[in-house]
Hints:
By secondary structure, the protein is α/β, with parallel strands linked by helices. It folds into two domains: 4-94; 98-315, 3-Layer(aba) Sandwich (Rossmann fold), CATH 3.40.50.150. 37% of the residues lie in helices and 15% in strands. The protein is built from eight helices and nine strands. The protein has a seven-stranded mixed sheet. The protein has a two-stranded antiparallel ribbon with strand order 8-9. A hairpin with a 7-residue loop joins strand 8 and strand 9. Helix 1 (4-20) crosses helix 3 (55-84). The longest helix is centred in the first third of the chain and has 30 residues, at 55-84. The two termini are 28 Å apart. Residues 277-291, 294-299 and 301-318 have low confidence and may be disordered.
Amino acid sequence: MESHQELLVAHITDLYEKISRLEDLSPSNHVNTLFTKLVLTCLSPTDIDVTRLSERVLEMRCRLIKLCGEAEGILEGHFSNLIGSHANPLDHTSIFPYYSNYLKLTHLEFSMLKKHCTILPNRVAFIGSGPLPLTSIILATKYLMTTSFYNYDIDPYANVKAFQLVSSDPDLSKRMFFHTADIMNVSSGLKEYEVIFLAALVGMDKEEKIRVIRHLAEHMAPGAFLLLRSAHGARAFLYPVIDPCYDLQGFEVLSVFHPTDEVINSVIIARKQLNPILSWNQELDSTTLPSKCSEIQCFNPINHGNIMEELTIDEQLL
């Protein structure tokens, strides 16, 4: 008899095969149904460790993440156009089907940040903001009402769509800025931000994600905060995974949270170390690991922002 994990992988593989045969990932009843089934499948509670799966399954996972990223970009572009067609676009952001998830995720991220960043930041950067920068919009309108937001995306058309959403708003049009750039080509400018958010789909594979994180570690201001979106368990079939023990050289990991509700992304908050980082070519040893690698603080938003007792990495799933 097949185990639960084997059945789960088989179901995800079947959905991947159906999605990969789609000629168009634009929103439609059929496309929406397939991706909804995939998300619901990946939300099922399981302790599956994707790093221990077969090479064949890992290759399928990489292809699936890229398909999900492509579909997510198309979906956000579609709804950015739809929302932007209104006279006051920001009054209609809730028509995005995953808006409530963004509200919960952004509340979680702000609550985690607030625990460690005692002074509200003046300048925040969001890397990979896309055509529908809901995180920046929600933060700017609900939590950081005086902060300036600098949104980076490599796609100029995404930035045009995003700018159209805030350009008519008298407040956000003065606090929300959009830069078309590959973040790997941005260096000295990164030191201007007290907080940087890294979108889940910046770095679609492990190697690219690590390169981006190392670039940030090299150029962010010492003591600045980095918020990263990762994935845990079966949700790792939808998004890349960041290992807080090995992938965040140059940062002190402060808190990690793995949601168990409909919010997909895990959240990691880290702080740029004050001391100069070692060369990336230097062999990794215990001195280069994040200082809280063995004891990550696990944040629980149900307790209204209270930090729970420190847990080991293997005990973090709530």
